[in-house]
Each structure stands twice: as C-alpha cells, then as structure tokens.
Amino acid sequence: MENFDQDLRSIQEARNLAKLGKIAANQIADYTEEQINKIVYNMVRVAKENAFSLAKMAVEETGFGKVEDKTYKNYMASVMLYDAIKDMKTIGVIREDVQRQVIDIAEPMGLLMGIVPSTNPTSTAIFKAIIAIKARNGIVFSPHPSALKCTCKAISLMHDAAVEAGAPKNIISSISTPSMQATNELMKHKDIAMIIATGGPGMVKAAYSAGKPALGVGAGNSPAYIERTANVQKAVSNIIASKTFDNGTICASEQSIIVEECNREVVVAELKKQGGYFMTDEETKKVCKLLFKNGHTMNAKFVGRSPQVIAEAAGISIPEGTRVLIGEQQGVGEEYPLSYEKLTTVLAFYTVKDWEEACKLSIELLQNGIGHTMSIHTEDRDMVMKFAKKPAARILVNTGGSQGGTGASTGLIPSFTLGCGTWGGSSVSENVTPMHLINIKRVAYGLKDCNTLASSDISFNYPELNNYATSSCTNSSSLNGLKIDCNDHEKLLSLVNELVRAMKGVK
C-alpha cells in the first residue's frame, strides 16, 4: 500500500511539473537573444563554481568514477560547451539565402524531458539544461534513482542560476521521487514536446516508444585499432588516458584494442610499461564472471571502478600501479564477454594479421554497440578513409575515445548526448547541440510564375504528348465546338499545336 501511494504521488508530481514547465516554456519563448545569452552565461558561471562539489557528491552517491575527472566533465558540460555555442544563432532569423530568397527562422520546441544516467549524473544534467535554455525551451528531468541527490542538486543550481538571470520559475525542474511510473507519465504527457534520453537501452527504447519525438543514444562498444604505422607510445598513452578517465564511464571510451601481428610485441610492451596488466585466461574468466550478469549485462557494482577494486573482488593479484586490466580474446559473441561494452577499467585485446582482418573484426565488435564510436591510431590517411566506412558515427583518429567523442580533444562540439544514427536506432548521428532543440520554419519567396512553369522550362520536352494528342483524335473530333476532320493533316497539326500550347499555358 505504501509503494502504491508513493507511485501515485510521483505520478502526480510528474503531471504538476509538466504543467508548470509548459507555462514557463511559453514565457521564455518570447525572450530575446540578449536575455537568453545572459541566462546561459549565469548558468555556466554557477556550474563552473560548483563543478568540484557536484563531482564529489556524484562519486560519494554512486561510487562510480573519480572526483577529479567528474569535475572536468562538469567543466566540459558548462565552460567548454559555452565557448562552442555562445555565438550560435538559435533565435529569430538564423540564416538567409539571398539568391534563393529563403529565410530560416528558429522557434523553440517547448517543454523538453531529460533522462539522466547514473554514470554522468551531474554533467549530463548541466549539459541538457544549458542547451535547452539556449534554444528557449523548458526542461523537466527524470534522474536515475541511484544518483538522485547529486542530479537534483545540479538541476536545482541550474534552475536558480537561470531564474536569477531573468528566466521564469519552473523553467528547469526534476522529479524528486523517481519511479518508472513517473518517468512514463512524463514521457507520454501531452505537454512534453520532445525527450532527450541518455541511459540504458531499455530507457532509450521506452523514450522512442512514447509516441513523440525523441533524441536517444545507443550503447557504445568502441574498438581501438593500432595500425602498423601508428606512434605506439602515443597511441597507448591516449587509450589508457581515455579508458581511465572517470574509470571508463563514458560510452565512447575504448572497449577493445586491435593490433597487427607485426606490431603486437611493441604494443604489449608499451601497454605494460604504461600500467596495463594482461590477465591470464583464468584471471580473465574470474573478472568476466564478476563484471557480467545475465549474459553480457554489466554488473552495476563494478561500473566505473578501479582495477584494484575489480581485482580484489575477483580474487586476483595485480601489480602496484596497474591502471587497466586487459584480457586477450579470440572471438566476438556470447562466449567472449569482453567483446561487449564494459564501462569500467577493463579492455579486450585482439591480434590480427593485417588491416583487412582488423576491418572485419571492427565491424563484428561494432555490432554490439553499432553506430557509436571507433578509433584508429595511424599515420596513413588512406587507412583512415578505409576505416571511415565503418558503421560508427564518430571515427576518431590518434586520440582517446572518451575525450575525442565528447569533443574535449577533437573539433567535435562538446556534448554528453552522442547520437548513433539509424545504425544504433538513434534519430541523430552527431553530437547533440542546441540546434537539435529548435524548430526551423522557412520563409520562401516565389521565384517563378506558376502559370508558365512548363512553357518557360526549355528542358520540359516530351514528344509523347504530341503522339498522345494525335492518338486521342478521331476522324470527327471537336475543339471548342468546331468539327475537325482528323484526315486533314494541316488541321490536325493545328489542333496538336493548340493542345500543346494550352498545356503549357500559352495563349
């Protein structure tokens, strides 16, 4: 009975938040660019000031990741994001094609719903709140239950900062008692214009099944191919820096390393030198048994954990200073659990004969995280273009997956919502930005006379029309009440020409 009452309260809360959020969204829709930029700037300022405290809260509440890296994530989601979007036009006329006489005008979507994962709870909330406001939308959040306190704190800070700078109250809000019932109520509520879903496959699928527009992201399972021309020291350094960043909780982080027979030994030596521990087959089995449940579903207890925590729980001994655990694999699929996504400090390791075999293996691995990200380390641009054909929305070159995919170390726009395209069942394939949160209407001037479109177009030439007119004529036809003898060729030709002129609008 208590649970039933709690569910009813959470559903009612969701309804109230949607109602109030819709009112606020209608108000902010009339704000000017100057007003919006002022609000966004204040949100960024507050996020920057609280980056460390929010990171600390997130680690303490979830146990995932590292305080220093979550602090940087919060910085990325605010300061770095602001630098990328501050000059972005999201209000009024955003583009005008003088030659074609088409004007693009941006309009807000209304009230958005944001689903927040436990792996990046504060940075994702900050990110979605800022891009929603930049596009003049309201947003109501559904936090992950295991990261409720830190997520709600981030949302509260963003709301207060926005209101302080002139935004209407309730423009940013959150369910205080998350439940599946409340989340479903929000997703299907008539006042929600669109859902931005970041989370597990089940939640993303539910968002796309809610009967309204949604921006969802799929799982990642990024392979990292160290090609024979690569700078091995740099490649290994980037991969480990990425996989250890917040203990591997970013879905763009590397999940597998692929090397060729010709550079295997030097890569293995460099991995060991930089803190990689190659597990024995027996140790790999112990770790896999610990990491996965129900096949290849990740055990939440070991998401974002250090190698030391994982090794101790698995009952294996690892050298001091170990930064990642590595298990050699001979294939892909159910019999090879490490071939799936592992949002923690564990990597699969594969050896292939050449780039063609690396190509096939990459495609196999990507089937378990299709559309997301893959990386290649090489000095051969032709090889980059060969691998650019893989079914991944982000092909990263000579950089780490975590930092590269989110735009921290690449020219991609900073984002914590990474689309996977239709490969991964996502409606977008790029990093989500404020531009995905606006409706664009187009003002289009007439360039041609509608009455003479056919006659004035010299490429509109179909002799079949003449034949059609001839074949439809009988020996005794009439045009405008006049009898025409189709055996009279001159009259017949005159009739055909008159018909053609009539079809082209010529008097």
UniProtKB/TrEMBL annotation:
Keywords (A to Z) from UniProt: Oxidoreductase
InterPro entries linked: Acetaldehyde_DH_acetylating, Aldehyde_DH_dom
Keyword Oxidoreductase applies: yes
UniProt KW Oxidoreductase keyword: yes
Domain of life: Bacteria
Enzyme class of the recorded protein, top EC level: oxidoreductase
Coiled coil (UniProt feature): none
GO MF, one example: acetaldehyde dehydrogenase (acetylating) activity
Enzyme Commission (EC) number: 1.2.1.10
Aldehyde dehydrogenase domain span: 22-274
Pfam families: Aldedh (PF00171)
Protein name in UniProt: Acetaldehyde dehydrogenase (Acetylating)
